[in-house]
Design brief:
The structure holds two protein chains of two kinds. Chain A is mainly alpha-helical. Chain A contains eleven helices and two strands. The chains are: A mainly alpha, B mainly alpha.
Chain lengths: 273, 126
């Protein structure tokens, strides 16, 4: 079984890296639907793989100078508190309920991935919180360092709390909600929001992983092929990114997510998970 | 000034990047070693993961995992690798805290201390 899980995780990690949508969303459905693993073990293993890919990718991003550590750290207050809360909720509700919530998040992520992200104007008056917290920064462009201002900090903070709860409850990076908070609400430039969100995902997942470990939800025999498979897949995906047909892959990935959402909802509602 | 010297944002970010990379490499190496050891001992047997049983106490706490890992218990060795992985982003936050302290950035010292507190509470305290 370890071999098959590792191969599936490799594919998930590679697709996640190529499409930028994250492999975590496929890991939990794959383990529960295809391998019949209890969803609590599946979420524990997925959290571990999320930490691995986030930390691995962040190492490269940080050097390029797009990541805004102040914004990331401030929003991590919301995501880590939310993540610990989400991990506790996971212990209180039934596994069927977790499966149904998971399918709703999958459906929402598929919907978002079909809509192109629109770049917002980066001028306009900054939020008073952003000024007090010195969040405004610069990012490298072809024409030199470009300054940007940060907007709607309270809205972004609240959305990040929700992203943290989902991450702790479902064992995913919650990239779709984080992008919503940083792109739409706080109006950060793409590169800044993508890299800062990735930077935060590892810290958020670490906050709930501790609770999962104490609960006995992290099984080493399931977690090791998932972690190593996803990590190898993500690294391979990042290498071949230049020559890949990203729009076609995104369509495939979205179709897979829609299928998994239906399957998770069906089994969850019938009490099969 | 807070933007210059050894504790400047740029220096700290570069150091954090390296910390994250090495954390993941070491954790993956330990986990792989434990996995290979496990497969060499239990290669063919398939456990039933449809039934949720939870983990034994020795695999549920930081001290329990660390102690069993050095007794050549393959599951504990994997779990130790996973602990190293969880510790990597925590070390990153601790490093940021140190950097904000050196920069006398009091607001972010408080912000970062809260994040670190939540992480340590989750890993050790629950």
């Amino acid at each position: 079984m370890s071999g098959l899980v590792a191969i599936g995780s490799f594919a998930a990690g590679m697709l996640g890296a190529l499409t930028g949508l994250g492999g975590g969303m496929i890991i939990v459905p794959m383990l529960t639907l295809a391998f019949g693993v209890d969803i609590r073990y599946a979420i524990g293993a997925s959290l571990v793989s999320v930490i691995a890919t986030s930390s691995g990718a962040a190492a490269a991003y940080v050097r390029e100078g797009y990541t805004n550590i102040r914004i990331g750290m401030f929003l991590e207050v919301a995501t880590t508190v939310g993540a610990v809360g989400g991990a506790f909720i996971a212990g209180l509700i039934s596994t069927s309920a977790i499966a149904v919530i998971f399918s709703l998040v999958l459906a929402y992520s598929a919907f978002r991935s079909l809509r192109p992200r629109a770049e917002h104007s980066i001028d306009g008056p900054p939020d008073k919180w952003a000024t007090r917290l010195r969040m405004d920064g610069t990012y490298p462009t072809a024409a030199g360092k470009q300054p940007y201002t940060v907007h709607n900090v309270p809205t972004g903070f609240s959305l990040m709390f929700a992203a943290g709860i989902l991450s702790g409850l479902l064992g995913i990076g919650s990239g779709a909600v984080k992008v919503l908070a940083m792109d739409q609400a706080m109006r950060l430039p793409f590169k800044v929001s993508t890299t800062t969100s990735n930077f935060m995902i590892g810290v958020t997942a670490a906050a709930s992983a501790g609770v999962y470990l104490h609960r006995g939800y992290i099984d080493p025999v399931i977690a090791f092929p998932v972690m190593l498979g996803v990590l190898a897949g993500a690294l391979t995906g990042a290498r071949v990114l230049a020559g890949a047909k990203v729009p076609a892959l995104r369509a495939v990935f979205t179709a897979v997510i829609v299928f998994l959402a239906i399957e998770m909802a069906y089994k969850g509602l019938r009490g099969g998970i | 000034m807070w933007r210059t010297g050894r504790w400047s944002d740029e220096h700290v970010e570069l150091f954090i990047g390296n910390l994250l990379r090495w954390g993941v490499i070491v954790a993956a190496f330990v986990t792989a070693a434990g996995g290979i050891l496990f497969l060499s001992l239990h290669g063919g047997s398939i456990a039933d993961y449809r039934v949720f049983r939870g983990q034994p106490d020795s695999l549920k706490s930081v001290t329990g995992v660390a102690q069993s890992a050095f007794r050549r218990n393959p599951e504990a060795l994997i779990q130790f690798g996973i602990l190293l992985l969880i510790a990597t982003p925590i070390a990153r936050v601790a490093l940021s805290l140190l950097a904000f302290l050196k920069q006398h950035d009091h607001v972010y010292v408080v912000v970062t201390a809260i994040v670190l507190g939540v992480l340590l509470y989750s890993l050790i305290g629950v």
